[in-house]
C-alpha cells in the first residue's frame, strides 16, 4: 500500500530505521505500529506528513491568536486611555466604543468560521493522510 | 418601587423545573457505571449538544444577572465584560480544545501529567483545580443568596442560609445521580431556556422602541443620573491611573481565564473526538454572541424602563435588573420564568464545578497520587461521589459566609486564578517540546501562588470601605485584579523552571506520543 512509497529525500534513513524494527515481518507490513499494536509515535512525529500538519496548524493558530488578542487589547486600551475618541457618537447615541465592542463580536465570529473552514480543508485531510500512511487509527 | 411578584409562584415554577430536570437526569443516567460515564458521559455527546452545554457552563448567574445588571447600572463599563467573554472562546477554539481532547481522558491533570513525572504534576493540577473551583463556587453560592432575597422575598440571613443549603443539596443530588451525563443535560436544558428567555425579551424590547438600539439607549440615558455620560467608558472604573490599570488587568483575566476554567476544560472530554470538540466551541461561540447581544439590549432596556435608581434600591441591587425588567414587561409569570431560569443557572453551574472538583480529587489525587495509578475504577467513583458531597457541603458553608459579597468580582478572581495556573501550563505542554516537570510545577505553583498572594494583599481584602476586612489595612498591591501581573509571571516561571532544569530524555517517547496525539489525533483511543 502507500507505506512503501517514500517521498524522495526522507527515504534513506527512515527506511533503514524501520528495517531495524523488522525482524520477522516483511518490509511491506512493517510499520508505525510495533508488535504489541502500540503506535510508534517517534517515527510518526518524524514523517514529512506530520511536520506539514504541525506547520499548517501553527502557522494558522498563532498568528490568529496574536490578531484577536491585539484587536481585543486595542479596544480595551482605547476604552481606558482614549475616552474622548471612543465617546464620539456615530449612529444616534451609539458611540464608537460600542461599535468597536460589537466589532469584537464580528472578529470572533469571522475567526471562528475561518478556523472551522481551514481545519476542514487543510488540517483534517492531512490527518486522514497520516492515519492512512501509518495505519494508526484515531 | 416595583415589587418582585409572587414568591409562591416563583417558587413553584422553580420547583417544577427542578423536578423535571431531576427526572431527566435520572432517566439519562440509569446505566451510569464506568469512570468514563461518570466523569465524561462516556464521550457520547455531539459537538452541538456539548457546545450548548459549554455555553451553559459559562452563562452563570454572574453573567446573566451580573452583566445585564452591570449594563443597567454602569452602561458602557458593564458592556466591556461581555466583549471579553465572547472573545475568550477563541483561546479555547484555536489553542486548547482539540489538543486537550486528544491527550486527556477526564481531568486537566491527565493532560498536564501526560509526559511529566506523574505524582507531583497531578497533585499540582488537582490543587489548582480545587482552589479555582472553590473561588468560582463561592461566587455562585453567594449569588444564590442575593437572588433568593430578591425572588422569594426572604430577607432574614437565616432564611437565606437555609435556602442556600437547599440549593446546594439539590445540586449535589444532580451530580450524585447523574454524573457528567446528567449534569450536561441540565446544562443543555438550562442554556436553551435561558437563550429563549433573553431572545424573547430582546425582541419585545426592540419592538417597543421601533427596532432602534439607539432609541433604547437614548431613553436609558434619561433614567440614569449620569445622563449621556453613562454611554461613555469610565462610569464604573473611573479615570485614575490605577483604576485604568485595574481595568486592563480585569480585561486580560476575562479573555484568558474562561478557557482555563477546570469545569469548562472538562467539558471537552464529553465529545467523542477532536473535531466534535472543535464543533462544540463553534456552537458555544454562536450562542455566546447571541446571548451577549441580547444582554446589551436587556441591560439598556432595564435602565430605560425600570431606571437605575429603582434597580439599585431593589433587594439584590444591580443583580435584580433582569428580573425587574421581566416583571415590568411580562408580569408575574415572566418573572417566575426568569427567576426559575436564573436558579437553574446557579444549580447547573455549581453542579458542573462540583463534578470538576470531585473528578480532580478522585482521579488525580486518589487514583494516581495515593494509589499510584492502581485504583479500582469502582472505588475511584465512590471516592469521587464522596468528594462531591464534601465539596458540596464546603461550598454551602462558603456560600453562606460569602452571602452578600460582590459576585462578579469573585468570579473575576477565579478567572485570574485559572488563567494564571492553567493557561500557561497547558499551552507549554501542548506546544513546547522542551517543557519538563520542573517547568510544569513552577508555572502551576508560580501562577497560583502569585495570584493568591496578590489577592490577599490587594484592596479587595483590606484597607478600603468595600474590602472584606474594611477595618484593617495590610494592602500593598494596588490592583483589585491580579491578572496583569500573575498571568505573565506564570509564563515566566514555566520558562525559567524549564531552562534551569535538565532535559527529560526518559520522557521523550511520551513527549512524541503527546505531540502526535494532540496535533494529528492519532492513537487517542488506544
Which keywords apply here?
A: 138 residues, mainly alpha, 2 domains, two-stranded antiparallel ribbon, 2 strands, 68% helix, B: 526 residues, Sodium/glucose cotransporter
Offer a quick outline of the entry.
The complex is a heterodimer of chains A (138) and B (526). Chain A has 138 residues and is mainly α.
Q: Order of helices and strands of chain B, N to C?
A: HHHHHHHHHHHHHHHHHHH
| Helix and strand composition category of chain A | mainly alpha
The counted number of beta strands of chain B is 0
Structural class of chain B comes to: mainly alpha
Assign the CATH architecture of chain B: Up-down Bundle
Largest interface: A-B, 56 and 60 residues
Query: How much is the radius of gyration of chain A in Å?
Result: 24 Å
Q: How many structural domains can be distinguished in the coordinates of chain B?
A: 1
Strand order of the largest sheet of chain A: 1-2
**Oligomeric assembly:** heterodimer
Helix content of chain A: 55-70%
User: How far is it from the N-terminal to the C-terminal residue of chain A, by CA?
Assistant: 19 Å
Q: What is the CATH H-level superfamily of chain B?
A: Sodium/glucose cotransporter
Q: Which stretches of chain B of 5+ consecutive residues score pLDDT under 50?
A: none
Give the termini distance of chain B in whole angstroms.
Answer: 63 Å
The CATH topology annotation of chain B reads as: Sodium/glucose cotransporter
Helicity level of chain B = over 70%
Q: How many structural domains are formed by the residues of chain A?
A: 2
Strand content of chain A: under 5%
